[in-house]
Amino acid sequence: MTSAVGTRERENLGARWGGGRSPWDVGWPKLMMWLFLISDAMTFAAMLIGLWVTRLGSRTWPNRLEIIDLHFVAAMTVILICSSTTMAMAVYAIRRGERRQTVWFLAATIFAGLVFAGMQAKEWSHFIGEGARLTGNPWGVPAFSFSFFVITGLHGAHVLAGIVYLWAMADRVARGRSSAEGVEVAGLYWGFVDLVWVFIWSSIYLL
To answer: What pTM was computed for the model?
Structure first.
């Protein structure tokens, strides 16, 4: 009897799978996004680990309070974190079938992303104006400016890509061409971008 039940369960699972949805009830787009985010997380993790290994192995390290306006960076961080809230509200709205509200929440998220990107560009301009370059800086620790530009630059590229992604998603939702899962997948990406910034902010600016 147990064997027969197990066989029926496997058959039902196979019929449900059918190449369209995974046995874990995760759609193909969401599964691919998770795989991408896992690989991307390892890239950022390797960079941050490299930063800490270099920093701990260095005799000196520049005082960030003398170089960077931490209040400005804190405002950037708050804006990006708040954008996670509007993104979550967009997912909640699309699940309820409220497409108009979904578009508005996506637009708010895009706006926050643009503000963050603009502030980061201003921060880079200030940093470059202080004499920082990829190959060196006035503070005598070339690895500091190199890691700053590479890590924050890669994250900034992710933010810009996310803005384009959300813009396209908002257009699809407005036209009725996107499902709730599509918005959820976009939410996964944007949430990842926000989470990574928390680690970058802590490693480069605070600790």
So the answer is: 0.85
List, as one string, the DSSP characters of 22-77. Answer: -TTS-BHHHHHHHHHHHHHHHHHHHHHHHHHHHHHHSS----HHHHS-HHHHHHHH
> From CA 207, how far away is CA 195, in angstroms rounded?
17
Collapsed DSSP state (helix, strand, coil) of residue 143: helix
Instruction: Kindly report the average pLDDT of the chain as a whole number.
Output: 88
Collect the ranges in the chain with pLDDT lower than 70.
1-26
Both tokens assigned to 44 = 């950022």
Residue keyed to tokens 């301009």: 125
Q: What are the residue ranges of helices labelled H in the chain?
A: 2-17, 28-57, 64-67, 70-95, 99-129, 142-174, 180-200
Torsion of CA 138, 144, 150, 152, to 10 degrees: -100
Q: Say which residues have a Cβ less than 8 Å from residue 126's Cβ, sequence separation at least 6.
A: 69
Q: Does domain 26-206 have CATH number 1.10.10.10?
A: no
Measured between alpha carbons, how far is 37 from 186 in angstroms, rounded to an integer? 12
